[in-house]
Structures are given as structure tokens and as C-alpha cells.
Amino acid sequence: LNHAFSDYRAYVWDWGSLYASYYPAAKIIETALAQTLQYFAMNNILLIALIFVVAVTARKPGHYAKTAAGADFRSEPARQSNVIALAWLAASYAGLAVGGRFFGHYFFQVLPALCLTGASGVLGIDQWLKERDLRSRSWLTRRRALAALALGFAFTMVRFHGRTAGLAFDMLRKEKSAATTSWFHERLNREERMAAAVARGYSGDIDLLGPESLREAGGPAGAAGDYLFVWGYRPEIYYWSGLPPASRYLSSQPLTGVPADVHYFGGEHRALLAETITAEARARLVSDLELHQPKYVVDELGFFNADLSLEDFPELREFMKKYKKLGATGRFLIYRIKDPVADSVRR
């Protein structure tokens, strides 16, 4: 109804296909193996349980007792349940791999199916060990095996939730530790709030403000000219500032043709879109910016990669002549629209 189907097709399917083919097949396979092995090394108990489930499920159906209790890992109901979970896991991994990237957080896609196979595998391993102990009349084997599984699980808990415990401790004592303040995500969050504070004209201590307070610190938003534009991809700054975007483009990807996972590295990127396509998109961007005249412009990308900075493109360079560069706030370059009267007074 809103004539958005062509944009949907271009952004989801056309761009998605180009994005997935950015790296050669050999690079994708190499990354897949390295990241998958690293993930299972960190989640070792899931790997052990998965191997057990695959080994048990791969046995011929004749080895299963159709009348056995469902809780028995040799029963036909257990085998059927494992087959479904393994099929779900395979489909989830295909979904994880479809973009040709294997970032750690992408593995959330496989976690539900892995938890099911993990639970089935741990119960099956325990049952199998009990049977071995009964045959050998020794309880040491089972105890040792379960202790090894417990140590593996403890390693995973510490590796993934050490930060959780640290953040919880900070919350209880109402003070951030040095480890928290130097954490990458904490630094990035603070820098985004700092950039938002500049856009709202707030000069106080941002650590004393929550998101609602920061958005209200500079007065009510929404008046004429109260727009913000962020070049790169940091929509969080719009959230923190409470200022509406001055353009339809929340990401620079359709404007440069360079995927977001590589555009921070100068000299190591290449555009996936033809120059005619990105130039047309930048012309629409300039039209949006001319219409809304954002008071502040934040260049997140130019700080890391001068080849893709705002002023590296002729049409944007011309528009940015209306703006004065204020310098860097954290890892953001801030520009403010020129005020002839105020600027002349400062001079």
C-alpha cells in the first residue's frame, strides 16, 4: 500500500545476496570451522551431549525397544525426539550460516535446539554410566565422568557469566568497577550518550542521568530543526537524544555499498553496489537533509575509516559546508550547523 515492496526486495533479498557473497567460499568455510570449534570449546558440555545423541540416534532402528519407557535413551520415542531436535539444529545452523558470517552472537540461532539435545544427551550419558557401573559393580567411573561434565559446565558458566556477576556486584554496590568502565560495550555506551548529550546541548555529568533524563535534559524535542543525522550505524544515539532522524537512512550501507562488518577498516573494503545506485541514494539523502536541516551531524564512520567519511563524497561534502566541525567526542566526529551570528561573536 505504501509502495515499499521494491525497497523491501532491494534491501532484504538483493542486498542480502550480495552481502552473503562478499567473501569467497574458502574464506566462509574457514571462518565457519574456526568459529564453530571455538563456540563448542566454550560450550563443551553441549558438544559432548551432542556427540552422544548423534551416536545413539545413528544406530539402526532395530536396536531400539519400541515398548521401552520414553525416558530410556534407547527407546523409539527418545530416538524420534532426538531426530526432530537434530533436524531443528541443522536448520538453525543453516540459518546461522546463510549470510556467510559466523559472529559469536549469531550462534543464539542454534542454542534452543542445542539445549534440547544437550538435556537429552546428559540424561542418556548418566543412564549409560549407571548401567556400566552396575555391570562392573564400580561407582567410580560414573562419579569421575559426572565430575568431568560438572567441571566443563563450570568453565562455561565462568566464561560467559563472569561479566554477569561483575555487573550484578556493581549494581549492588552502586558503583562501576574498573573492569566494567574499561569494558568495550560500556565504553561504547558511554560515548553514544556523550554524543547524544552534545546534540541536546547538555554539558552535565551524563553518568548521573538515565535515558529519559538525558533525552529531556536539553528541553523538549520536536520543534522545527530539531533533527539529528548519524552517518554510519549508531541508531542508539537517536534513542539517547530523543531526536528524530533527519533522513530515511539509518545506516550508511546503501549509501556507500560497503557492508557494516567491514566498513570500519580502511583499504580492506569494497562496495557491493554500483556507484550509480549509491550516488542515487546519496542524492536522496541530501534531499532529506536539506528538508530537515539537522542541527547536529554525527559521523561515526569517518573516525575509523577516512575513505568513507561524510566529506569523502562530493555531494555530501557540498552539503557539509553548512556545518562546523566541533571535533571528536569519544569515537564520534560531531558537526553543528553554522550560526553566522554566534560564530562571528566567538571569533
Mean pLDDT: 86
Order of helical and strand elements: HHHHHHHHHEHHHEHEEH
What fraction of residues sit in β-strands? 5-15%
Secondary structure tally: strands: 4
Low-confidence stretches: none
Major sheet size, sense and barrel closure? 4 strands, mixed
* Amount of helix: 55-70%
- From the N-terminal CA to the C-terminal CA, the straight-line distance is 53 Å
Question: What is the number of helices?
Answer: 14
Task: Give a written overview of the molecule.
The chain is of the alpha+beta class and 347 residues long. The chain has helices at 5-20, 25-42, 44-57, 76-97, 111-136, 140-173, 178-181, 184-199, 211-217, 236-241, 253-256, 275-292, 314-319, 340-346; strands at 228-231, 296-299, 323-329, 332-337. Strands 1-2-4-3 form a four-stranded mixed β-sheet. Helix 4 (76-97) packs antiparallel against helix 5 and helix 5 (111-136) packs antiparallel against helix 6. The protein is elongated.
